Amino acid sequence: SMHCLPGLVPALSSLLGALALLQLSLYLRVPSRYGKHEERLCRPRGRLPARCAWFVQELPSFLVPALLLALRSPPRLEPLGCRLLCCLFCWHYFYRTFIYPFFTRGRPFPLQLLFFGTLFCIYNGFLQGYYLIYCAEYPNDWCTDIRFTSGLLLFLLGMGINIHSDLLLRQLRKPGEVTYKIPQGGLFTYVSGANYFGEIVEWFGFAIATWSLPAFAFAFFTLCCIGPRAYHHHRYYLKTFTDYPKSRKALIPFVF
Known about the structure:
Elements: H1 8-27, E1 47-48, H2 50-71, H3 80-98, E2 109-110, H4 111-135, H5 146-171, H6 194-210, H7 213-240
Antiparallel strand pairs: 1-2
Helix pairs in contact: 1-4, 1-7, 2-3, 2-4, 3-4, 5-6, 6-7
EC number: 1.3.1.22
Function: Converts testosterone (T) into 5-alpha-dihydrotestosterone (DHT) and progesterone or corticosterone into their corresponding 5-alpha-3-oxosteroids. It plays a central role in sexual differentiation and androgen physiology.
Pfam families: Steroid_dh (PF02544)
């Protein structure tokens, strides 16, 4: 049966941190070519409908921890704090896999990006699940620790912002529409990337609640991955819409 290998978690976490820096270097100046940043003259031939693409990409992040838990003998998580942390991770990806894709109205997704996104979800799903299910050691009263409670509040706040912002973005388009409009309401009043801000807050909350190297590496990766995208969205809006609110920031309210 599977067991915890002490050196594996730091090695995989370090690799995730390195991938974060690579992602940042690749897309800090030039946005990833999908959605509103896709170059119309050189669209990739292989594309999948957005709903199907999101389902395929996000599924491993839910499925891999579930399989790791099923393979554990005995199949349980102790203590309660560890069980709750694993549930938070799976809860996010249950939403991203089984709920979000069926409401999205995004454009077809390039297969190349889908392939790398799916690989990442397999990798990260294994790292987070393996650590929590096989390696993590928490005191019995971890769910009353200030790190757990504050991290949990941040996670829930971030997830709420993320889901609400996604809802506002969906409402901008009628079924069949592909044009882009200025997001309004919620945190979009202050930032162009409200949905991205919510997800970054969510995973840093998870990292604080987990207080682990894998979770902090994932939060750092999230920041390096979607932080630049929020910046490029902001530039796109300013360039495309002459009436775009000049007071809005790219990602962090009142700062950036």
